[in-house]
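Sharing a chain and its predicted structure for anyone who wants a worked example. Both blocks are below, sequence first, C-alpha cells second.
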Amino acid sequence: MSRFLEWLLRLQPGELAGADSWAPSFAAEYNNWVILGLSVALLALAALTIFSYLREGDHPRRVKLTIAGLRIAVVLLLLAVLFEPGLVLRYRRNVYSSVVVLLDDSLSMSRKDPYADPDVREALAAKLGVQQKQLSEMSRVEIVRRILARQGGPLAELGREHPLVLLRFSTTKRPYTRELQVVDHTADSDKGGQVAAAIAEELSGALAQLSAEGYRTDLATALRAGASRVQGRRVAALVLISDGQDTGQEGAVDRLRSALAHVRQRGIPVFAIGVGDPEPPQNVALLRLQGPQEARQGSKIELTAYLTHRNCDDQTVEVRLLRRPAAEEKWTEVALDEPARVELTAKPAEKEVKLLAKAEGLGEFVYKAEVAPLEGEFSDKDNSATTKLRISEERMKVLLVSGDAGWEFQYLRNFFLRSPERYAVSVWQQDADVTFNQEASTGMKLTRLPRTPPELFNYELVILYDPAYTKEGFDKTFVDMLGGFVADHHGGLCYIASNKHTDENLTSRNEVFQSLAELLPVKLAPRAHSIAERIVQGEPTPWPVVPWEVGLDHPALRLGGNDQENLAIWRALPGVYWWHPVIQLKPAASSLAISGDPLNRTLDGTGEPSPLIAVQYYGKGRSLYIGFDETWRWRFLDDGRHYRKFWSNAVDFLGAGKLQEKRITISIPSGSERFRVGEDIRIRVEAYDRNYQPLDQESFLVELLDAATKATVEKIRLEPVKRKARGGSAGPAGGRIGPGADGQMTVKGQFEATYALKTLGTFELAAKRNDPLYKDDVAGKTITVTLPEEEFRHPEADLKKLQTIAPDRRFLRIHDSDALARMIPSGKMSVFHDVPRLLWDVPLTMVVIVVLLAIEWILRKKYNMA
C-alpha cells in the first residue's frame, strides 16, 4: 500500500515509510488580499452553482444539491491547486556530544607507587582485582590501562552515548598532543552486548599504545590542544587523566590558568582523574659534580658535589669518589683527604659537598661522586654524577714580576707559594735590594730575570704587576722575548695595571715597550688625574667589577655554578676605587668585565663601557689585562674563596695553552658535560688556521659521534658569532670584526650553534676528522645525554593541582572513576528535519478531478438535467 501511495504521490521509494511523521501543507505564499479574493471567488462560485442547480428541473432538492456539491468540490480542488498543496515529511536524527579524554604519557606515568594510605591501597586493589602487595609492582600507566579499558568501565559506559576522542600528550613525538583513537558506536544498536564488547576492545587497543616515555609534562598545552581538537562540535566534557605533575615551560602556573580559562570560555566542563600516590618518596640525588678541567700530577684537587634529598629523616650518607680512565669502564675508588658525610633531614634541601683528593696518574679521567642507595629509596638512578679531569705531569710554571712590594703583589705571591702542588713560581720584585732573597718555589729561585728564550720559554705563564724599566732586566730584550713567548710558544701573559709605571710603559711611544703594548687587549690612555689630585677629590667611591657579555660565561670569571649565581658573586665582591683609563678595546680582544660606574667609558668617542678586565688571543697564546690592582681586597669576602677561585681560573686559562696546543677547540659555554634529552645546548668552536690566524669562513661543521662506535650521529653546522656593533671590538677568538648591514659584527674564528639533544647516550663532538692538516690538533668535547630529572625530581602525584583543574567535585581518584559516567550527562539530542513534497501536479489530483466530473455527468444524465 505504501508503495502505491508513493507512486501516486510521486515520492521516492521508502520515503513515506522512512519519515517519523507527515502533515499536509500549502507551499504557495500569497498575501492576505489574494487569499481574501480567492475566498470570495470560491464563495461566489459556490453560491452561483447552488442557485443554478436549484432552478433546473423538478427533481428533489437533495439531488440537485448533491450534483451541485460535486461541481463545487471540483472548483474547490482546482482552487486548492493554486495554493500548491503538499506533504511535509518530518525526519528525526539523534546527535551525540563528544567526550575528549586526555591521557598523560610522560615518564612519571611509569612510576610504581607504594600507596601509603591503607584505604586507598585497599580500594585500588579491589578495583584491579589484585592483592595489595602487587600494587607496588604496577606502574601508573598500567593501572590506567586495566581500569579504563575494561568492559563496564567508565570510558566504556561513556562510549555508549558519546563519541570518545582519545588523545595522549608527551614529548616522544610531535605534535605534543596526538590522537590515539576515536571510538564512536553511538549509531549502533547493542544486541547481546556486542557494542559494549566492541567499545572495550577498541579502548584496550588504544590504551595499549601508551608508552610513558615523554620527558616533559605540559598540562596547559594538553588542555588547549584537547579543546581545539573538537572545535565546532558539541562537547559534553574534557577528561584529564594524569598524575598531576607539570614539568612544562617557565610560568607553568600562569599558563595553566590561561588554558583553563580558554577551555571554560568554550563552555566545556573539565573533569580530572588522578593516578598515583601523593605521598612524597624518600630520595637522595647528586645533581652535578664540578671541578677543575685540568690538574697537575700530585696536586690537590677539589671537587664539589651538589646533593639534594627529600624525606630522609635524620639519616647520614657518605659521598664516595671514584674514577676511571676515559677510555676504560672499570671504576676504582679515590681516597679522600676527609670522609664526605652528609646529615640529611626530612625537609628537602640542596647541599654542597667538598671532595678533596690527590691527583694521581697521567691522562684524562672520569671522576664520579656516588651515594649508596637508602633502604626504600625511590630511585638509585640519580645517585651519582660525573665530571672529566685531565692530569698533567708537571706543575704550572709561573713567573711573577712586580715593580714594587704592593698589597696586590704580596697576596698574589702568597697565593702561588701556598699551592706548591699546583704551581712552581719564580718571583722577581724589582725594587728589592740586590741582597734581597727573592722568594720562589723549590728549584725556581731567580738571581736575575730570564735573558734568553730557553730561560723564558720554560714558563707557561708570565704575570707582570706594573713593572718598571730596568737595564739588563725588564728591558727591550725581555719584552721582545715575551712577544715570541706568547705568539709562538702558546705562552700566557697577565698584565696588572697600577698607578706607578703603567703610564710610562704603555702610554708613551717608548720603543722599549711597544711590543708589550701590542700583546695587551686594550689601548691605554694616560692617567687623567695625579695621585695628589685624587687625594684632593675626597673620599672615592668603590665601584663593583661587573662581568660583561662574553665575560659572564668565560672560564676566567666563572665563580658560580650558573650565570645568575656568578653575577651575584661578582656584585658582592668589594668594589675597586681606581682603574687605568682605556682608549679602546683592540679589534682582536674581548671585554670580560667593566666597572659599575656608568660614567666609565672608553676615550675613543664610541661611548662603550671601558674594560677593567679584557682578554686577547695573540698568535698561539693568550693575554689578560687587569686594569686595577685591588683584587687583594676580595680576600675579605667568604674567607678569600672567591679571590682564590678567580686567580685559579685566570691562571688555568692563561696557562692552558701549553697543555692544550690545539688549533680547534670545541666547547660548551655552560661548562657542563651532562645534559637531558630534549635540552638545547650551545656549542662553541674557536678555530685557527695553520698560521694560527682566526679561521675565516662562512660556517663550521661539527660532528656528533657515538662515543662507543665513533659513528656519525649527526652533522651540526655552526655559524660565525655575531655581536652588536661596539665600535670595532672583537670576540675572544681574535680576528677583526666589522659591522654588517644589520648592525651586527662577525667574529672571525668563532662559531656557535644551538642544538637540541634528541638521543640518550654518550657522544663526542669532533671536527675535521679526515683532514690531515688538523690531525691531533682538535680538542673535542664529550657529553652524556640522560633522561630529564624533572619527571622524577618530585615523583609523587600532584592531586591538589588536579583538584584545581577540576573543581566542584569533578575530580576523582582512579579507583573511583566509575562514577564519571554518572557525572557526565547524556550526550543524546534529537534533531528534526522537515522535507516538503508538492502534490498539486501528481496523478492523484487529476484522477480526483476526473472522477468528480464523471460522477457529476452521470448523475446529470440520470436525472435528465441539462
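Comments welcome. Residues 2-90+834-862 form one domain.
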